[in-house]
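idk why but the lab printer keeps eating my pages so im just putting this in chat instead. protein + magnesium ion:
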Amino acid sequence: MNRREWLRAVGSAAAAPLPVAAAQSGLRTEILKLKLRHTWTTVMSSSNFRNTLAVTFTRQGVTGYGEGAPIVRYHESAETAQAAVASVADLLDSADPWQFSKLMGEVFRRIDGHYAAKAAIDIALMDWVGKKLGVPLYRYFGLDPAAAPVTTFSIGIDKPEIVKQKVREAAPYPILKIKVGLDSDEEMIAAVRSVTDKPLRVDANEGWKNKEEAARKIDWLEKQGVEFVEQPMPADMLEETQWVRSRVRLPIIADEASLRPSDVPKLAGCFDGINVKLDKTGGILEAHKMIQMAKSLGMKTMLGCMISSSISITAAAHLSPLVDYADLDGNLLIANDPYEGVTVRDGKLVLPDRPGLGLKPAV
Ligand code: MG
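predcted complex ->
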């Protein structure tokens, strides 16, 4: 029974809550409305809640959980992601999930764009595979959980008083990631520095539009105890970014310019490293490939995230022993996380040792 038939069977035409423990095989979706602890502002947007798409995949009595966070910049929403997942429900209902690599290849061929939707499907499948094998996903990938890195905690753009309050609340996290890129950069950093002397990483989210400004700001940030700068200029300004990189000492990490594995070769030489997100790559398998490509080109690697529940953040965390830097705090920024998976101890990611993603309901 596919979702449409299931909805008809229970006499509902509207989106219904997911059936408990999903008795039927196949794919189900639900839009999660995540409530933010603080209004979240970056160069791109400002909001109090975020919608993500949760997916469950059930077969042989085992349910895998997945999630994708739609990215507005790429014209995605939870509703378009839900429609994209529905368009391959027949495939997921009939295919052999043990052939997950082939199956995800077919999903990628059938869905154009909609990488958050693809990520939700991939994560649910890999959770299912890990559960059936009885191993945590980090073990499936041959990784050492003790090598999981420290995660940064992100501070969004805000008024100085609110920024100071956020920095104080971030006391348990040893490294902070500060969003800049508007006219208030100096004010943001001054507010942070008035409260803490922790190492900082800075994300400009493509906010600086000319190379001289970017180089000047990066030199200034170096003096403020900043370790690296993420995406200083617009994603398509590769030549300008290369110019900036040749003049500054701080490493420059690509985010909006590094979406998928095929982007990596052209970024070598322009950036020192890449930020990999499951919602950009379309899931764990493609993220793993992208990290390996970047490492083979001598680049630094980072795992980042969108604002998501612990489903998506834990999925990324299982790959984190592979990377140099982690910014996996999307679940820490919300007040209504339905699950518990990866946790943070003294800033370091602690991977659950239960099978698959290792999620359990939040207490
Ligand atoms: Mg970023």
